Each structure stands twice: as structure tokens, then as C-alpha cells.
From TrEMBL:
Organism: Circaetus pectoralis
PANTHER family given in the database record: PEPTIDYL-PROLYL CIS-TRANS ISOMERASE FKBP7 (PTHR46222:SF2), PEPTIDYL-PROLYL CIS-TRANS ISOMERASE FKBP7/14 (PTHR46222)
InterPro entries on file: EF-hand-dom_pair (IPR011992), EF_Hand_1_Ca_BS (IPR018247), EF_hand_dom (IPR002048), PPIase_dom_sf (IPR046357), PPIase_FKBP (IPR052273), PPIase_FKBP_dom (IPR001179)
Domain PPIase FKBP-type: 64-156
Full protein name: peptidylprolyl isomerase
Residues of the signal peptide: 1-35
Reactions that this protein is recorded to catalyse: [protein]-peptidylproline (omega=180) = [protein]-peptidylproline (omega=0)
Phylogenetic lineage: Eukaryota, Metazoa, Chordata, Craniata, Vertebrata
């Protein structure tokens, strides 16, 4: 939905952690945001100032890419800082998928065509941020224009990319079986090294098929998997 951050399971839960491995990357701003007024959103634009551009600027970000970035958020009205990623999550940069509604619309726009090492200062109008409602929990008042200072560290293929699908699709039949996804989960669990109860694997596998096997045939097709559709399978 336009301008809205989807609600996710709490990232601390075992189910939530497992699903992030395959389907649900972490959101940049974990709060609902609704842009107000379609006409205003169409008329207003995000203003972008490039503060630093690397000599080699590649790859450039596009919709569906998995980005890693640090950012500070300020209110344009008085310059007060309402968010700093360096003080959250032990200071680790944030991971999120670009252009799919995991962040406010203005950030999805502001971080397109951005390369690793690039720094930007962006001004986001209310219609592309938190609109008339604001976001009290984040100390963002109604009709607030926001300023973000962003430093991008990495641009990777997103979890719904062709490469990710093909990595799981061991027999190259353009559909993912329970066995293929089960094996992928085992490999990812082994890679991160965290101890989990054996039942967690089965719960995550069942949840993945419940949410993605729309026709109930026991497989996740390329169409069912590739919801971001930034590449063709």
C-alpha cells in the first residue's frame, strides 16, 4: 500500500527471524505511516542533495534490492533529531528492501539510483511521510516535513530476486518444493549458527507455504515467489 510500512512479526521472535532469511527483510522504520491525500502526493516531490559520490558509483539501487544504510532523521521545522540508526540495534546499519513499502514512500523514492558509499541529504514532504496523522511514538507531529541524512553501505540482490529463486530451486523446474525450501532453511540456520528448537524449522516451513502457495498445489511457483517483479524469471 502506498506510503505505508507493513506490519511485521516482532523481529525478536524465532518465527520472525526465520522468515527474514527467505521472505521478510527487516524494515527501516518499524511504524505504520500513511500518506495523506493522493493528489498532494502526486504533486509534491522528494528533494535530494548528494553530499558525497564515490568515484566508482556502482551498482546503483533499484526497486527490490536489499540495501544496508545508516541514516539520521530530523524535523524540518526546528532541526530536532527524531531518529538515529547508529543508536539503535547496537549501532548496526539497517537492512531493508527498496521500493516495496517497507519504509515511508519518501525514503523509497529518495534512495533509488544510489550506490554504495554515497551520502545524501533528502527532504520529504508530509504527503510522502507520515501525513496529517503524524507518528506520535516517533515524535513526529502531523503535517511534518522530514529531513534524512543517509549513508548507503551495500546494494544487494533482494530476497525476491531471480538469483535468490534459482539458488533455492535446485532442480531448475521454476517452482519451489517443500524439500527445496526445507534444505534452504537448514543451510541458512547453519550459516547464522543460532540454536533453535527443531520444531522452529517445521513451523517456519509451514508458514512460508501458507503465505505463498496461493493455489495450494504444494509448490511455490516463480509467480507466487517473485512478488517484487523487478526481474523476469
Amino acid at each position: 500500500r502506498r506510503g505505508q510500512v507493513p506490519r511485521r512479526r516482532p523481529p525478536g521472535s524465532e518465527m520472525g527471524r526465520g522468515l527474514t532469511l527467505l521472505l521478510l527483510p527487516l524494515a527501516l522504520l518499524a511504524a505504520p505511516a500513511q500518506a495523506e491525500g493522493g493528489t498532494a502526493a502526486a504533486e509534491e516531490e522528494v528533494k535530494i542533495e548528494v553530499l558525497h559520490l564515490p568515484e566508482v558509483c556502482s551498482p546503483k539501487s533499484k526497486r527490490g534490492d536489499l540495501l544496508n544504510a545508516h541514516y539520521d532523521g530530523f524535523l524540518a521545522s526546528d532541526g530536532s533529531k527524531f531518529y538515529c540508526s547508529r543508536t539503535q540495534n547496537e549501532g548496526h546499519p539497517k537492512w531493508f528492501v527498496l521500493g516495496v513499502g517497507q519504509v515511508i514512500k519518501g525514503l523509497d523514492v529518495a534512495m533509488m539510483n544510489m550506490c554504495p558509499g554515497e551520502k545524501r541529504k533528502v527532504i520529504i514532504p508530509p504527503s510522502l511521510a507520515y501525513g496529517q496523522q503524524g507518528y506520535a511514538q516517533g515524535k513526529i507531529p502531523p503535517n511534518a516535513t522530514l529531513i534524512f541524512e543517509i549513508e548507503l553501505y551495500a546494494v544487494n540482490k533482494g530476497p525476491r530476486s531471480v538469483e535468490a529463486f534459482n539458488k533455492i530451486d535446485k532442480d531448475s523446474d521454476k517452482k519451489l518444493s517443500e524439500l527445496e525450501i526445507s534444505q534452504y532453511l537448514k543451510e541458512e540456520f547453519a550459516r547464522d549458527g543460532k540454536k533453535r528448537h527443531p520444531s522452529v524449522h517445521d513451523e517456519i516451513l509451514a508458514d512460508i507455504f501458507k503465505k505463498n502457495d496461493h493455489d495450494g498445489d504444494g509448490f511455490i511457483s516463480a509467480k507466487e515467489y517473485n512478488v517484487y517483479q523487478h526481474d523476469e524469471l
